[in-house]
Design a protein that fits this description.
Blueprint (H helix, E strand, L loop, with lengths): L3 H7 L6 E8 L5 E9 L2 E3 L2 E3 L1 E10 L1 E11 L2 E14 L5 E16 H8 L7 E13 L8 E13 L2 E2 L3 E7 L4 E8 L6 E8 L6 E12 L1 H8 L6 E14 L13 E13 L2 E5 L3 E5 L3 E11 L2 E10 L5 E11 L10 E16 L4 E17 L2 E16 L1 E11 L2 E12 L2 E16 L5 E13 L3 E15 L5 H5 L21 E17 L3 E14 L4 E15 L2 E12 L8 E10 L2 E10 L5 E7 L4 H10 L11 H4 L4 H23 L3 E5 L13 E7 L4 E8 L7 E7 L4 E8 L12 E8 L4
Parallel strand pairs: 30-31
Antiparallel strand pairs: 1-2, 2-5, 3-4, 5-6, 6-7, 7-8, 8-9, 9-10, 10-11, 10-12, 12-13, 13-14, 14-15, 15-16, 16-17, 17-18, 17-19, 18-20, 19-20, 20-21, 21-22, 22-23, 23-24, 24-25, 25-26, 26-27, 27-28, 28-29, 29-30, 31-32, 32-33, 33-34, 34-35, 35-36, 36-37, 38-39, 39-40, 40-41, 41-42, 42-43
Helix pairs in contact: 5-7
């Protein structure tokens, strides 16, 4: 039947058969019976549970006593007889079907599609109830008598509900099989009428339907099958298809079909842009090509005319023109956060055969804009002006300029076309003072020279990026960074994604910036330089090189430290842990304290602390953790006495208090909450624990409250305003002693702190 190879492939999934067949005699004088059972398997992609059949053979008649196929909740049953006659002129025995009846209940649509053997069918779902009868000689269509009646339930095509779906067919006395298909795919019952002349030469057929304000939205959704593209419309007109269903060899085919569609009203809305066709719009088509009579579409910002022939398959030829202005909003997609505006002028000719179409002409834009939503940031390009020239199988960008993030960019290059798709391309881009929200949580202004080359399947991006300024203001949780597992270092990408156009994209970028990195958050206020190389796949690149701070301060254990040295080395291998080397100084109680940290960031970090004038290690740690000296051996820091090491002593605040600080920030708006059980006693007193809460109002203003939780409260309230890295004002109130044996008045002081290196 023109598709027997596909049908054989669909039946290849049948399960193993078992049973008994006993037949004696020759055709015309047979005797016997057959009982068969076919185990569970698949017909095409549709699974079934079991097929059971029983037949008897008597003389020239084969009686199908019963056939029962179970497909989940569905059943197909069949009965009937086949009469095998004498051999005809073509060498084949005469066959006559008698009262063959097939009935189906809740049969999956996918099963019927699989049995059809048709290729490239849309995705179908739902169930069908049907009855069909057949009598006559299949090799002599004029002798056939047939009827079919089917009703679909919950049928959808490419995910779009088909609405009411019925099919009724019957044979007329003049050997024409007439079918009426009613579908609700267009929003209201739409009847498609078809007639097949079984007595005519090569089975001529006609298919026709009339549209009356039909809603085209579900039809476009079914044909496009893309949830990111929204096209709607309405149409009034007629559609007629006719032609022979069989070729000269007697095989079923659609190659001889041709049709004509004439619309007296056609409106299409792409996204939010309505387009209306001038009346009438006439389209003729064959399986090889479609021809549009000269047609104009108009709408806001759109006045475009096209006409001619476009090839659809081998044997078709292209000869079409497209001229006019097109509102670029029709190319936008709100679902993909992709927005275009402006008008494109198109003047192109399409020629050549289906296998190698040729495009000539130009397409240009003036004053266009493009907006993308990347994470929570909007990236907008404006004042886009450019022209693309098509020359047979090539497309070249003659000019393309615009503004992006306050800067300017330009693009040049071109592509080789395989039909209407670029097979190879090479683009170069230059950006100057362009500000973009990259990397994540950064805002970067840079100059860039990039080259993108390759194909839709594989792309390569290389070039240089000169960073003018890259600012990072997000607060960081040092505990999360320190506790980060080695198998997920901060230089590792997420992986598992794809590159541009759904293919693979490889990077080779050099990123440099002298005093361009600015970090202002809860941990640092610093300026630094970057010298990095980004290489490897786009979804999981390797970042290597060095980040070095040139000046600034670090916030650590409630004091600010001047940066003496701050270097982060990123090894050039995937998944490598960053190596840090940081040295910073702070003046605490008249001592210049120096803290040095070096080693892998997420494991093996070594920390040392010294002071000038020199102090014992326990006193240095006490200065950093409590703001005072340890008060002698009796008051030595408990943690220092245990020998757990400088790094542990200094980082205890981060590891213990950070989780609590997160919770209090959410509940009470306090971004400082510390409970330090390691505070040493002062002046020989017993050690105590101290609670500190506070709020960093902004980058320069902080308010802090502190009290002992045992013994004397010793409450302290401090307000600090930081003018610069070198100058700050501190106002502090300290509660007097409540111990009657040691009277001490409340104390209020004001400090002006000025730092200068010599």
């Amino acid at each position: 039947l023109g598709g027997k190879n596909a049908s054989a492939d669909n039946l290849a999934g049948l399960g193993p058969a078992s049973g008994r067949v006993s037949v004696t005699g020759f055709p015309g004088a047979m005797s016997g019976s057959a009982d068969l059972k076919v185990a569970a398997g698949r017909i095409g992609s549709q699974p079934y549970d079991e097929i059971v059949a029983r037949a008897t053979f008597s003389g020239s008649t084969v009686n199908l006593d019963s056939l029962d196929a179970r497909i989940g909740a569905g059943h197909v049953t069949a009965t009937g007889a086949v009469e095998i006659g004498k051999t005809g002129a073509n060498g084949l025995p005469g066959v006559s079907v008698k009262d063959f009846r097939v009935q189906g209940t809740s049969v999956p649509v996918g099963l019927l599609a699989g049995l059809s053997g048709a290729a490239s069918l849309p995705q179908l779902s739902g169930t069908v109830d049907f009855t069909a009868t057949l009598s006559g000689n299949p090799l002599q269509p004029a002798s056939l008598r047939a009827e079919v009646n089917a009703q679909g339930r919950d049928v959808s095509v490419n995910g779009q509900p088909a609405g009411q779906l019925t099919l009724v067919g019957h044979m007329t006395p003049d050997q024409k099989f007439v079918v009426d298909l009613t579908t609700g795919l267009l929003g209201q019952p739409q009847v498609v009428h078809a007639t097949v002349d079984l007595a005519g030469e090569n089975m001529p057929a006609t298919i026709e339907t009339t549209l009356n304000g039909a809603d085209l939205t579900p039809l476009f959704a079914t044909l496009l099958n893309n949830p990111n593209v929204h096209v709607s419309g309405r149409a009034t007109g007629t559609l007629r298809v006719s032609g022979a269903l069989m070729n000269e060899e007697g095989a079923f085919t659609g190659e001889a079909l041709s049709g004509r569609a004439e619309f007296t009203e056609l409106t299409v809305q792409v996204e939010d842009v309505p387009l209306t066709a001038e009346n009438p719009l006439v389209v003729t088509f064959t399986p090889q090509q479609v021809t549009f009579e000269r047609t104009r579409f108009t709408g806001p910002g759109t006045n475009i005319t096209f006409g001619g022939t476009a090839a659809l398959a081998a044997g078709g030829a292209n000869d079409a023109t497209v001229n006019g202005d097109l509102n670029m909003r029709v190319l936008s997609s709100a679902r993909q956060n992709f927005f275009l505006s402006g008008v494109a002028h198109v003047g192109v000719n399409l020629g050549g055969p289906f296998e190698s179409p040729q495009i000539t002409g130009t397409a240009s834009v003036a004053g266009a804009s493009l907006a993308l939503l990347v994470s929570d940031e909007r990236l907008t390009a404006s004042e886009i002006n450019g022209q693309v020239r098509f020359n047979a199988n090539q497309a070249s960008i003659e000019s393309l300029t615009g503004r992006l993030g306050g800067g300017h960019f330009s693009v040049a290059g071109g592509a080789l076309l395989a039909g209407f798709v670029p097979s190879q391309f090479r683009l170069t881009g230059h950006g100057e003072s362009v500000t973009v929200p990259f990397p994540t949580d950064f805002r970067t202004t840079a100059d860039a020279d990039l080259e993108i080359s390759g194909s839709l399947e594989s792309q390569f991006i290389k070039g240089n990026v000169n960073v003018r300024r890259s600012e990072y203001t997000q607060n960081l949780d040092l505990a999360d960074i320190i506790n980060r597992r080695a198998e997920a270092p901060i230089t590792a990408g997420g992986g598992g994604g794809t590159g541009l156009f759904g293919g693979t994209t490889t990077l080779d970028l050099t990123i440099q910036g002298q005093d361009a990195l600015v970090v202002r958050n809860n941990l640092a206020d610093m300026v630094g330089s970057v010298n990095l190389r980004v290489s490897g796949p786009l979804d999981d690149p390797t970042i290597s090189g060095r980040i070095a701070a040139t000046h600034g301060t670090l916030a650590f254990r409630n004091d600010r430290y001047d940066i003496q040295r701050a270097i982060i080395d990123l090894p050039p291998r995937p998944g490598a842990d960053p190596i840090i080397n940081v040295q910073a100084q702070s003046d605490i109680k008249g001592y210049r304290v120096t803290v040095t940290m070096s080693g892998p960031l997420s494991g093996g970090l070594t920390t040392t602390a010294t002071s000038d004038p020199p102090l014992p290690q326990a006193d240095v740690i006490s200065l950093i953790t409590t703001g005072g000296l340890s008060g002698g051996t009796e008051g030595t820091s408990t943690l220092a006495q245990t020998g757990l090491g400088t790094a542990t002593s200094l980082l205890t605040d981060t590891l213990i208090n950070a989780p609590v600080q997160k919770a209090t920030d959410k509940l009470f708006g306090l971004n400082r909450f510390e409970f330090d059980p390691l505070i040493s006693g002062r002046g020989g007193q017993s050690p105590t624990a101290r609670l500190t809460v506070g709020r960093q109002v902004n980058r320069n203003l902080a308010i802090t409250y502190s009290t002992n939780v045992t013994g004397e409260p010793n409450q302290v309230i401090a307000v600090e305003y930081r003018v610069s890295d070198r100058l700050s004002f501190i106002a502090q109130y300290q509660q007097g002693s409540t111990d009657t044996l040691r009277a001490r008045s409340n104390n209020f002081n004001f400090e002006l702190r000025f730092r200068k290196r010599y």
